[in-house]
């Protein structure tokens, strides 16, 4: 077997094709100029590498060609790859992609794994586009619907004011009862029995807010209670309430107040 073979063809060839037969391999390709290749028998073995055969051919120094742009063996050992995009219609607004109803191009994997399972988009097909247009016509808001929304908002504000008024009346009529430990040492050192008993731990705003929520089921903020100093003795108190002026006061009342009674355990 020869180490290499020389193939030469001119433009005068009727078919303008040149063929190379080597064992079970047969290559044919068109020519435009006088072409000369020096093919080594080992070069055919590189076809088994598939797309990596390109690297093997480049490393093979004995293969030389003249007046040819690309060696035909390169196409025999690799395939064409291209990025295919898919046109989809978005159902919701997506950052850096588009708004609802826009037709955009995305990768098939991104649509299959992310957009389609979450119903964020569907393929750009005539039937899907028709359904989207019909849904827009059906669910398009009208002026009557907008007016109904405005009336509902007004009614909700009135309901909120009624709830505030009920809560204020409940606070004003109810009495908050607390049981606390007294300071035994100070109780023994009192000058007279008429002196009030001091508490071991004073009652602060936060304690009153928590007890109001537990006993009266009304949520108030510490700012709604006017308590300059904590309650430190047993007895009954009236704690002024700071409520919005829009809440009407009952007849004969100047301000809102909360009755608190502190008893010993």
Automatic annotation (TrEMBL):
Keywords on record: Ribonucleoprotein, Ribosomal protein
Any single GO CC term annotated in Swiss-Prot or TrEMBL for this entry: ribonucleoprotein complex
Keyword Heme in record: no
Coiled-coil parts of chain: none
Biological process annotations from GO: translation
Keyword Ribonucleoprotein found: yes
InterPro entries: Ribosomal_bL9, Ribosomal_bL9/RNase_H1_N, Ribosomal_bL9_N, Ribosomal_bL9_N_sf
Span of domain Ribosomal protein L9: 87-122
Source organism, top-level taxon: Eukaryota
One Gene Ontology molecular-function label: structural constituent of ribosome
Family membership: Belongs to the bacterial ribosomal protein bL9 family.
Name this protein carries in UniProt: Large ribosomal subunit protein bL9c
Native source organism of the sequence: Glycine soja
Upper taxonomic lineage: Eukaryota, Viridiplantae, Streptophyta, Embryophyta, Tracheophyta
């Amino acid at each position: 077997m020869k180490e290499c073979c020389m193939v030469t063809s001119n433009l005068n060839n009727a078919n303008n094709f040149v063929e190379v037969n080597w064992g079970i391999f047969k290559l044919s390709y068109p020519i435009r100029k006088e072409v000369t290749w020096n093919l080594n028998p080992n070069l055919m073995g590189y076809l088994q590498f598939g797309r990596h055969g390109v690297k093997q051919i480049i490393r093979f120094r004995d293969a030389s060609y003249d007046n040819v742009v690309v060696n035909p063996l390169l196409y025999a050992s690799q395939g064409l790859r291209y990025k295919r995009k898919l046109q989809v219609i978005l159902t919701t607004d997506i950052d850096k992609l588009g708004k609802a109803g826009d037709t955009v191009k995305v990768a098939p994997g991104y649509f299959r794994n992310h957009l389609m399972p979450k119903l964020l988009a569907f393929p750009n097909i005539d039937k899907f586009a028709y359904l989207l247009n019909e849904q827009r016509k059906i669910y398009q808001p009208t002026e009557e619907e907008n007016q109904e929304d405005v009336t509902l908002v007004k009614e909700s504000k009135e309901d909120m004011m009624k709830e505030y008024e009920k809560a204020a009346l409940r606070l004003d009529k109810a009495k908050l009862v607390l049981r606390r430990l007294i300071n035994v040492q100070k109780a023994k050192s009192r000058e007279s029995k008429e002196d009030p008993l001091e508490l071991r731990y004073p009652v602060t705003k936060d304690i009153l807010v928590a007890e109001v929520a537990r006993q009266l089921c009304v949520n108030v903020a510490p700012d709604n209670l006017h308590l300059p100093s904590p309650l430190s003795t047993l007895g009954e108190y009236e704690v002024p309430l700071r409520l919005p002026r829009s809440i009407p006061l009952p007849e004969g009342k100047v301000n809102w107040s909360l009755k608190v009674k502190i008893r010993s355990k």
